[in-house]
Automatic annotation (TrEMBL):
Domain LUD span(s) in chain numbering: 27-183
InterPro entries recorded: FTHF_cligase-like_sf, LUD_dom, NagB/RpiA_transferase-like
Protein name (record): LUD domain-containing protein
Gene3D superfamilies, per database record: NagB/RpiA/CoA transferase-like (3.40.50.10420)
């Protein structure tokens, strides 16, 4: 059953001050600092442009995997990947077609090394660091090294002044929303079990951040 953010967002108590859309000067400074740290950054105006940009980043014939991301859902990428109107190898289609639990878990681990791994991020420090967390690590495991290429999509509402603020946003915005989603979807609570601080990309051209001038995801 399709799940929308509106199905659970109203039940989560968040720190709204850490989910605001920043001004243009703040975004510009964040982009400059991210690029200085080795991330490629593409700034787009809206979700439709974000989807077209993401599609343009992925060449034909490669394997593609996505971690759960409300932002990817909101821009329409998950639907596009699942519908098959592309020339990529869609690893999620293969994984969720496996009936055996152990085999499916092995395939999920192997998918971390996809040619292109896509996902979201929980916070972006204006100083240029990215912060994300998972319960299982199935998303952030690919980001630092395993995947050949990483494409991260984020609304500018994820930008906060400092790395300390990014940790606060993870705790007081992203986690409450994800916890509500997990309870709605799976009947269990989530947890900030495995956390990534992505301070720098050392491999040129490997990690691209598509930054959307909208309030997206959490």
């Amino acid at each position: 059953m399709s799940q929308q953010k509106a199905d659970y967002a109203d039940d989560a108590e968040i720190d709204a001050e850490l989910d605001e859309v920043p001004d243009a000067e703040t975004v510009e400074e964040a982009v400059a600092n991210l690029e200085e740290r080795g991330f490629d950054v593409i700034v787009v105006d809206d979700a439709d442009e974000a989807l077209e940009t993401v599609k343009s980043q992925i060449p034909d014939g490669v394997s593609v995997m996505n971690g759960h991301s409300t932002t990817l859902e909101e821009i329409g990428f998950d639907d596009f990947l699942g519908e098959g109107d592309h020339d990529w190898e869609s690893l999620p289609d293969q994984i969720w077609g496996i009936d055996d639990d152990a085999e499916r878990q092995t395939a999920r681990r192997e998918s971390q090394t996809a040619d292109y791994f896509l996902g979201g991020i929980n916070a972006i420090a204006q100083t240029g660091e990215l912060v994300a967390a998972d319960l299982s690590g199935s998303r952030i495991g690919a980001y630092p090294f395993a995947a050949g290429n990483v494409v991260i999509v984020s609304g500018i509402n994820k930008i906060v002044p400092t790395l300390s603020d990014a940790f606060d946003r993870l705790e007081s915005v992203a986690y409450p929303l994800e916890n509500e989603r997990a309870q709605e979807a799976y009947g269990v609570e989530s947890a900030i079990a495995k956390q990534l601080v992505y301070r720098r990309e050392t491999e040129e051209g490997r990690t691209t951040l598509v930054l959307v001038r909208e309030q997206l995801g959490y």
